[in-house]
Write a structure and sequence with these properties.
2 copies of one chain form a homodimer. The mean pLDDT of chain A is 97. Chain A has 342 residues and is α/β, with parallel strands linked by helices. Chain A has 2 domains: 4-140 and 307-336, Rossmann fold (3-Layer(aba) Sandwich), CATH 3.40.50.720; 142-301, 2-Layer Sandwich (Dihydrodipicolinate Reductase, domain 2). In chain A, the strands form 2 sheets. The first copy, chain A, has an 8-stranded parallel beta sheet with strand order 4-3-2-1-5-6-8-7, sandwiched between helices. In chain A, α2 (40-47) links the parallel β2 and β3 (52-54). Chain A has helices at residues 15-24, 40-47, 57-65, 74-80, 93-102, 124-127, 142-156, 196-203, 236-244, 261-270, 307-319, 325-336; strands at residues 4-9, 28-35, 52-54, 72-73, 83-86, 106-109, 121-122, 136-139, 160-170, 187-188, 209-216, 222-230, 249-252, 281-284, 289-291, 294-301. Chain A starts with a strand and ends in a 6-residue tail after the last helix. The A-B interface holds A 164, 166, 168, 182-188, 190-193, 210, 212, 214, 216-220, 223, 225, 227, 254, 259-263, 284, 286-289, 291, 294, 296-298 and B 164, 166, 168, 182-188, 190-193, 210, 212, 214, 216-220, 223, 225, 227, 254, 259-263, 284, 286-289, 291, 294, 296-298.
């Protein structure tokens, strides 16, 4: 079978993880990673023997002066690839897109870009099929991914009427907390509803979801609290069974010592996950409460990791190397070691 | 007019604030404060010329050895007072209560104690009248006080059907953050619903309220997010008018630079409030959103300060020096400088 050649533009928080995940797939080949940096971060790519490309000739010189072996520029990488995943910082991707389009190269952007950029927003368990053969898509953000995963499970079980969520957002990514962050305060988003609710509707317009969000002084992961109006009265076990239909929602228990975000992070490190990544939504089984036709629950989202399996599936859908969503999801889950229970 | 003699047992986070507030009232006299500590904290009481008492003879010796002038023990203070406010740490008050009862002394406990301890839970704008002449009451906790204040306003306007809240709780009090605290994590409460919803119902059983709570790594104040099902569709101005009927809910605006808990704290310090205390619930006017018959809003609660005016009113109700709640609330608000808008 011919392997799909995947290029990655931007070797940052998401890009480096996508590269590692692509390298694990037996139906994909990493065509190369492109960046502008010259420090330890890109040297990791060199050590992993990933082909490294520079954004343009100027950056190529800088990178070569720093002793980094460069295979070419973004233009060269574009020629070598079947698809490119743009992992550049928010708002920068929009400029790169013109280049991809000129070269008739399929591309994926991140959740930070607007839905209109591609006209399609992706979440594997919800709408894999609609991405088949597409020229472009947008893998929605970490928070939105978690919302779509969990609510899709409730929707498929016929239980979802409407969902109202409060999102506690980590202030910044761990390795960037010396650059920006917040301390000893809470910073609410200016607007209620926050953007994540409407964003989930770009994947699935049927979801009746409203969110409010607040930045909190920690770097590990997000924490969501949900209040869901069910279509009818239901039992706790029935709701848990609905969540169990998602292969990317893992049930956890407070009584098992998983009583805080840092405990969950430590478990991921103990499981030898790269960077201690958690690809799953970790949802508290014992905390979950059903009262009549109302459902309450909380879960943790690893904002650096949750979109990685989604991105791998988006590559398969767009290139049609796998037309069945379940097959792709199973393959991705196995390669990354996802679990449905911790 | 004879002044009511108020004793305070426990000169900690709440006790020292109640003492200062009592000293400001023209119808009250501070009979004394009682504690067991010998360090700078109780020396502040001495400097303010508050009569200082020791919990018992042993502590009296220790305090006198530390150079603190002690007027007697708790037993002596009990004899001098018309009412005592117990501000000792959680669970300790229960043991003190026997002494108050033996002496036929009216007493107030804090929200950390159980409702059953007194059989009455107090929040001035909701149930002042039911506390008139009582032998004891419990001033509900900071979070519960904020819930009762805001929901009472909506209830009185005929707008409240049910309220669902997510509470972000400061990890510990500012001056104790070197003793205990949390860092770079989030710690959900084990149970949903959390205790604050049922606790609000000890004041007003009519409130249909469910809460979930999580500890966050900051020390300044709590932040609540609410989703309220209204009895009918309503306009934003109508909802704001309902909140304006509470003299202890102050509207704030994000657009005015009050965009985070620390900004609000700094404003309180700039207003020369003692300790930078905020007695009001600070509710974001511009963030508040009404969608059909659903209402969304967020507010900040100063957990060290919000119960102080409530305690002053509880003293007036129980001693019947003022039988009208509005008169007491107005008097308290004026003495502490409460505002309805920042």
């Amino acid at each position: 079978m011919k392997k799909v050649k995947v290029a990655i533009n931007g070797y940052g928080v998401i890009g480096k993880r996508v590269a590692d995940a692509v390298a694990l797939q037996d139906d994909m080949e990493l065509a190369g990673v492109c960046d502008i940096i010259t420090d330890w971060r890109i040297k990791i790519a060199v050590q992993r023997e990933y082909p490294v490309f520079a954004f343009n000739d100027d950056f190529r010189k800088q990178m070569e002066n720093a002793g980094i072996k460069v295979q070419g520029t973004l233009s060269d990488l574009i020629q070598k690839a079947d698809i490119i995943v743009d992992c550049t910082p928010k708002k920068i991707a929009a400029k790169n897109i013109e280049k991809y389009k000129e070269a008739n190269l399929k591309f994926i952007v991140q959740g930070g870009e607007k839905h209109e950029t591609t006209g399609h927003s992706f979440s594997a368990e919800n709408n894999y099929e609609t991405a088949l053969g597409r020229e472009s898509t947008r893998v929605v953000s970490c928070n939105t991914t978690s919302i779509v995963r969990t609510l899709t499970a409730l929707k498929n079980a016929g239980l979802l009427k409407k969902a109202r969520g409060t999102l506690l957002r980590r202030a910044t990514d761990p390795w960037e907390s010396h650059l920006n962050g917040i301390m000893n305060t809470l910073v609410p988003e200016k607007e209620i509803p926050s953007h994540q609710g409407p964003d989930a509707q770009t994947v699935d317009p049927d979801l009746d979801v409203i969110t409010a969000a607040v930045k909190v002084p920690e770097t590990l992961s997000h924490l969501h609290y949900w209040n869901v109006q069910l279509t009818r009265e239901a039992g706790k076990e029935e709701v848990l069974d609905a969540f169990r239909t998602s292969t990317r929602v893992a049930l956890i228990n407070y009584s098992d010592g998983l009583s805080a975000n840092n405990a969950i992070k430590e478990l991921m490190l103990a499981l030898n996950r790269p960077y201690g990544d958690m690809y799953e939504v970790a949802l508290w089984e014992d905390m979950l409460k059903v009262q009549g036709d109302e459902l309450f629950y909380a879960y943790v989202v690893d904002n650096q990791a949750i979109v990685i399996p989604e991105t791998i599936d988006a590559i398969r859908a767009m290139t049609e190397i796998e037309k069945d969503s379940e097959n792709s999801i199973r393959k991705t889950n196995k390669s990354l070691g996802l679990r449905q229970k911790f």
